[in-house]
Amino acid sequence: MSDVLDYDGLLLEGLRHIEDILVKFALQNYAAAGAVFLAYFTCHIPLSIAALVIIGLGVVFTWAMWGNIVRYTLLWKMHRIARDNWLAGQSTLRSALHDDPECKKYLSITTLSPSTFWPVIIINLLPAAAAVLLVLWRCAVG
């Protein structure tokens, strides 16, 4: 049974690694978009180019994040299977976990919905949204 726990520990470490990657991608997107905004606000590049670059950065980083989200959901499924198989041999612990409503709710989750990841995707796309709003504002005021 320790093999199952070792395997599950590796899966959990993989999940944490992917979470770190998602955060790093969002931070890198913010840093790159910030540099482009700075170039625009210091009159080194026109707004249209700045907006296109920032939107392009948002798209590229979002694609990279979705690729990692796919990996995350697969590793999570593997973790759930390993966890459930290990718990199958732990009748007292399994019963105690299923008796607790919060634990039972967690244990009953079989797949992760894409909506689970919307907050990180939305946060990642905020610089692109700001660029679009800046272009729209600039067009409105002339």
Describe the fold and architecture.
The protein is mostly helical and 142 residues long. It has one domain. The protein is built from 5 helices and no strands. It is elongated. The protein starts with a helix and ends with a helix.
Number of strands: 0
Compute the number of structural domains.
Answer: 1
Query: Tell me about the biggest sheet?
Result: none
User: Can you give the helix content as a percent range?
Assistant: over 70%
- What is the chain-wise order of helices and strands? HHHHH
Arithmetic mean pLDDT = 93
The secondary-structure class comes to mainly alpha
Please state the overall shape, judged from the principal axes of the Cα atoms: elongated
Assess the beta-strand content as a share of residues: under 5%
Round the Cα radius of gyration to an integer and report it: 22 Å
Q: What is the number of helical segments per DSSP (H or I, 4+ residues)?
A: 5
As residue ranges, the low-confidence spans are none
Termini gap: 69 Å
Brief sketch in words of this structure:
This protein has 142 residues and is mostly helical. The chain has 5 helices and no strands.
Question: Could you list some keywords that capture this structure?
Answer:
0% strand; 142 residues; elongated; mainly alpha
Please render the helix and strand layout as text:
Layout: H1 2-41, H2 47-88, H3 91-99, H4 101-107, H5 118-141
Helix pairs in contact: 1-2, 1-5, 2-5
